[in-house]
UniProtKB/TrEMBL annotation:
One of its GO terms (molecular function) is phosphatidylcholine lysophospholipase activity. Residues 14-31 have a biased composition (Gly residues). This is Uncharacterized protein. PANTHER family: SGNH HYDROLASE-TYPE ESTERASE DOMAIN-CONTAINING PROTEIN, THIOESTERASE 1/PROTEASE 1/LYSOPHOSPHOLIPASE L1. It comes from Streptomyces tsukubensis (strain DSM 42081 / NBRC 108919 / NRRL 18488 / 9993). InterPro entries: Ester_Hydrolysis_Enzymes, GDSL, SGNH_hydro_sf. Residues 1-48 are annotated as: Disordered.
Length: 341
């Protein structure tokens, strides 16, 4: 899920003035007190020459600096009443017309239509299924137009380390908006010890945003939070079908031995939950450094996917109904006047 930053820069132009090397005068005249021809003291003539020199220096300085009463300071701003030139402020586009998606199986709508298959037409981000009403359909309009103006580069099984490569493909399209939803697979491993380290997660996400900015600096980025895997366990463990399916190895770090409430299993689930929270903190922090990036404020993490919002084939991925809820959350946040808190 993933793109981290772009900001306008202004350049200041400073002014410099030279000094008159011939403008210095001395007061310690070794001939002070001697009489000049005609009885006029040399000291008096020295003072007159010094005064003339000072007057000439002042006239020259006025000529050099008096042409413009305002000046450029080192930071590029104008002083003494002149207009200050500021970089234009970026305004979030609430109705982008082209969308590229990066992420994992959620954005590919895996298991939403048929078992063990991607169903990109039902994707929350770029899908054309009217039953889902994807973000693209809500923003752009009819399915034919959506197909021409959207690109889904997400891949089932992807982790954050895969997002820079996906983002490179998205950047080449120079879309007005890139959606990012990734991180569940980083936490869903065969064991808690194999989860992606938080700093590796950060490095990959930062690199993905840099990849985007190098090619498409004006693309906006909408970042969804990682879903709450522990809440998913709490929901599905009550269902006998869900428990049986999870025994096949789906997200083992969280869902393995789903009925085990012992201290070891509880500690394992808590560790996975903490990692997901840490991933979301990274998404928020890195996104905040990019002027054109908007994080969902933890909206997806906070949403409780239940019942028919989960795939009936794995009780893990969103169904069409769940995909529609993701689209609804994204649309609300992208079209809002301000970013979620």
């Amino acid at each position: 899920m993933h793109d981290r930053h772009s900001a306008a820069r202004t350049t200041g132009y400073g002014t410099s003035g030279g000094t008159d090397s011939g403008g210095g005068t001395g007061t310690g005249d070794p001939g002070a007190g001697a009489e000049a021809p005609g009885g006029r003291p040399a000291r008096r003539r020295g003072r007159a020459a010094a005064a003339a020199g000072v007057s000439a220096a002042l006239v020259l300085a006025a000529a050099l600096t008096g042409c413009d009463s305002s000046s450029d300071s080192d930071d590029g701003t104008r002083t003494k009443g002149a207009a200050v030139k500021k970089a234009p402020e970026f305004v979030w586009d609430r109705s982008p017309g082209t969308i590229a998606a990066v992420g994992d199986s959620i954005t590919r709508s895996f298991n939403a239509c048929t078992v063990l298959s991607d169903c990109p037409e039902s994707s929350w981000s770029t899908g054309t299924d009217s039953r889902v009403r994807s973000l693209a359909l809500r923003l752009i309009g009819d399915p034919a137009t959506v197909s021409q103006r959207t690109w889904n580069y997400a891949k089932t099984g992807a982790e954050m380390a895969d997002i820079p490569a996906q983002m490179a493909k998205a950047a080449a399209r120079k879309p007005e908006l890139v959606t990012v939803l990734v991180g569940a697979n980083d936490a869903c491993s065969d064991s808690a010890e194999l989860m992606t380290p938080v700093e590796d997660f950060r490095t990959s996400f930062t690199g993905a945003l840099k990849q985007l900015r190098a090619v498409s600096p004006k693309s906006q980025v909408y970042v969804s939070s990682v879903p709450d895997l522990k809440r998913l366990w709490e929901t599905g463990r009550e269902d006998p079908v869900g428990r049986q399916i999870w025994k096949l190895g789906i997200c083992a770090s969280m869902l393995k031995d789903s009925e085990d409430l012992g201290p070891e299993a509880t500690a394992r689930r808590a560790r996975v939950q903490e990692r997901v929270v840490a991933y979301n903190a990274v998404l928020k922090e890195v996104c905040a450094t990019d002027l054109r990036c908007r994080y969902d404020g933890g909206a997806v993490f906070s949403y409780a996917f239940v019942g028919d919002q989960l795939s009936r084939w794995d009780w893990f991925h969103p169904s069409r109904n769940g995909q529609s809820r993701l689209a609804e959350i994204a649309y609300r946040n992208i079209t809002a006047a301000g970013a979620p808190k």
